[in-house]
Design a protein that fits this description.
Length: about 475
DNA sequence: TTTTGAGTTGTTCGA
DNA sequence: GTCGAACAACTCAAA
C-alpha cells in the first residue's frame, strides 16, 4: 500500500530548494499538497504590514509558477490554520503535515498548538529548521545562557560545525489524483494599495528566482567592495537580499555556500571569507533571532529594564514629519521617502533615521519600529526589534547612550556628492554639494539660484540637532541603567 | 576564583 | 588640520 498524501504547510519558506519540510513530504512517498493558509490574526499583535503583504502576494504568485513547473500547485486557504489543515487533510486523506519553523513568539505558540492538535488526531506532524544556520536553543554561552553580545555569539557559531550543504529542489512533486479546492490568490486581498504594488514591482522581483539572481549579481559585483561601499547609500553597495531572506525565498545556508564557492574560485583563504563583513551580516540576522527567541517580550519592551522608566515624548507632529520625510534633515528625509516609495531603506540610513527619531526627537523607539514594520518589505520581527533597541540604547549590545548620529555630518561623509539625497529629495537637487546636507544654512543667493525656498519647498529643521543632542544626552544619562 | 579587556556602525572638545 | 580622550554600565570569555 502506498503512502497517504502529505501536506507541506508553507509559511515564510517560499522556495523549493533547501526546503527540509518539502523534502520530507516528497520522501514520504505519497502525493504532496503545498498549502498556504492566510491567518494574520494568529500573528497578532505583529501581523504583517501593508508592504509585507504586498511582497507576499507577489512571492506567492512566483511560488505558484515554480510549483506548476514541477507538476504541482499551490492550495490557498484562509485561517484558522488548524481548521484549514484539518479540512484539507480530511478532503485528501493526508496522513502527515510538514512545515519549516518560524521563531516569532506568537507563531511559536500557534505552531505548538497546531502540532499537538494534529498529532492528537492521529496525523504525523513535524517541523524543520532551515530559516537559520543554528536553532536558537542550541546556542549557549559557557554559563549555559543565551548570548547578549554579538561578537562572542558569532565567534561561538563560527567555531561550530560549518553549515550543511543546501538541499536540492525536488525533481518532481507528486500531485494528488484530485486537488482540494483553493482560493484565488487575489481573494486574500494582500495587494491593497496599487501605489505600493507598483513601487515594489519597479525595483524588486519577489520569489526564489529573483532572490537567486539578486545574490548572483551581488557576488559578481558589490561583494568585492562590500566593506567600503555598504555605507554609501548612493551606491549599489549592499546585497538587497533582506526581503528575499525574510520570506524564505533563499536561505542563509544557500548564501553561506554561495559565498564559500565564490571565494574558493578566487582562491580567497577560508578564514578571510568566513570572517568577511557580508557573512557577519548574516550573523547579525542569526543573533537577532537568537535574542527574539530567548527574550520574547523585546518587540514591545526594552531588554534593559532601566529603560522602562524612560519618558519618551509624545508628539504627533514630530512623528508625522519623520514618517513623511519632512524633518528638514536631507539624509533622514531621503531615507524615509525611499522607504515610502520602494518599501526598503538603505541600512546605514535606517540607523541615522532611527537615531533621529529616538535621540533628536525623543520619540519612543516602539513608534519607529511600528512604522518600519508597516512600510518595509523586509519587515522582520527579530531584526526590526534588534535594530530599534540597539539604536535607542535599550537592547542587547546596544549603542552607547552618547552615540548620537549627526545627520548633517553623516550626510557629508556618506553621501558627499549627494546622489542619494538628490534622488529622493528632488526639490534640493539644484543645491550645490556644500549646502545639500544643511540647506537652511545656505545663503539667500544660493537658495534663489537653486529655486528653493526653505519653509515653502523644503522644511526648515524640525529641531536644532546640536541642542537636541544635548537634551538627549541629559535625558539618557538620567536613567539609572542598573536594574531597579 | 578573580581580574581584565573588549565590545558593529559616533561626536565633540581640547591639546 | 589631526589626534586622543571622554562620554556608562554591563556582558562574556580568556587569562
Amino acid at each position: 500500500m502506498s503512502a497517504s498524501a502529505s501536506l507541506h504547510w508553507i509559511r515564510l519558506d517560499l522556495r523549493l530548494a533547501d526546503n527540509a519540510a518539502l523534502q520530507a513530504a516528497v520522501r514520504r512517498g505519497g502525493a504532496v499538497i503545498p498549502v498556504f493558509i492566510h491567518a494574520p490574526a494568529e500573528e497578532a499583535p505583529w501581523q504583517p504590514g501593508a508592504a509585507s503583504r504586498c511582497w507576499l502576494h507577489q512571492s506567492l504568485s512566483a511560488l505558484h509558477g515554480d510549483l506548476r513547473a514541477k507538476g504541482s500547485r499551490l492550495v490557498i486557504r484562509e485561517g484558522p490554520s488548524l481548521e484549514a489543515l484539518g479540512e484539507i487533510a480530511a478532503e485528501t486523506g493526508a496522513g502527515a503535515v510538514f512545515w519549516n519553523r518560524r521563531y516569532e513568539p506568537a507563531v511559536i505558540r500557534r505552531d505548538a498548538a497546531v502540532m499537538e492538535a494534529l498529532r492528537a488526531r492521529g496525523l504525523q506532524a513535524d517541523s524543520f529548521g532551515g530559516a537559520l544556520l543554528n536553532e536558537p536553543w542550541t546556542i549557549r554561552n559557557q554559563g549555559g545562557k543565551p548570548f547578549q553580545l554579538f561578537t562572542p555569539f558569532w565567534r561561538h557559531c563560527l567555531a561550530g560545525p560549518a553549515p550543511a550543504e543546501p538541499l536540492p529542489a525536488p525533481r518532481a512533486i507528486p500531485a494528488p489524483g484530485k486537488w482540494p479546492k483553493s482560493l484565488p490568490l487575489e481573494a486574500l486581498g494582500l495587494e491593497s494599495g496599487a501605489r505600493l504594488a507598483e513601487g515594489i514591482r519597479s525595483c524588486w522581483r519577489p520569489g526564489a528566482t529573483g532572490a537567486r539572481k539578486r545574490l548572483r549579481r551581488f557576488l559578481d559585483g558589490a561583494l568585492a567592495n562590500y566593506a567600503r561601499d555598504r555605507d554609501r547609500p548612493g551606491r549599489p553597495g549592499t546585497s538587497r537580499l533582506s526581503p528575499h531572506v525574510h520570506f524564505g525565498e533563499i536561505t542563509p545556508r544557500q548564501i553561506w555556500h554561495a559565498v564559500r564557492r565564490r571565494a574558493g574560485a578566487q582562491r580567497i583563504p577560508e578564514e578571510a571569507w568566513r570572517s568577511s563583513r557580508f557573512l557577519t551580516e548574516v550573523g547579525w540576522r542569526e543573533f537577532a533571532h537568537h535574542l527574539l527567541y530567548h527574550f520574547p517580550r523585546t518587540p514591545n519592551e526594552p531588554l534593559r529594564s532601566g529603560f522602562g522608566r524612560f519618558l519618551w515624548r509624545k508628539n504627533k507632529a514630530f512623528l508625522n514629519a519623520w514618517q513623511q520625510g519632512r524633518t528638514g534633515y536631507p539624509l533622514v528625509d531621503a531615507g524615509m521617502r525611499e522607504l515610502w516609495a520602494t518599501g526598503w531603506m538603505h541600512n546605514r540610513v535606517r540607523m541615522i533615521a532611527a537615531s533621529f527619531l529616538a535621540k533628536d526627537l525623543l520619540l519612543s523607539w516602539t513608534q519607529g519600529a511600528g512604522w518600519f514594520w508597516d512600510t518595509l518589505v523586509d519587515a522582520d520581527l527579530a531584526q526590526n526589534t534588534l535594530g530599534w533597541q540597539w539604536t535607542a540604547g535599550c537592547g542587547a549590545d546596544a549603542a552607547p547612550y552618547f552615540r548620537v548620529f549627526n545627520p548633517t555630518s553623516q550626510g557629508e561623509k556618506l553621501d558627499p556628492s549627494g546622489d542619494y539625497v538628490r534622488r529622493w529629495c528632488p526639490e534640493l537637487a539644484r543645491l550645490p554639494d556644500r549646502w545639500l546636507h544643511q540647506p537652511w544654512k545656505a545663503p539667500p543667493g544660493i537658495l534663489a539660484n537653486a529655486g528653493l525656498s526653505i519653509g515653502r519647498d523644503y522644511p526648515g529643521p524640525l529641531v536644532n540637532h546640536a541642542i537636541a543632542r544635548e537634551v538627549a544626552l541629559e535625558a539618557f544619562a538620567r536613567i539609572k541603567l542598573a536594574a531597579p
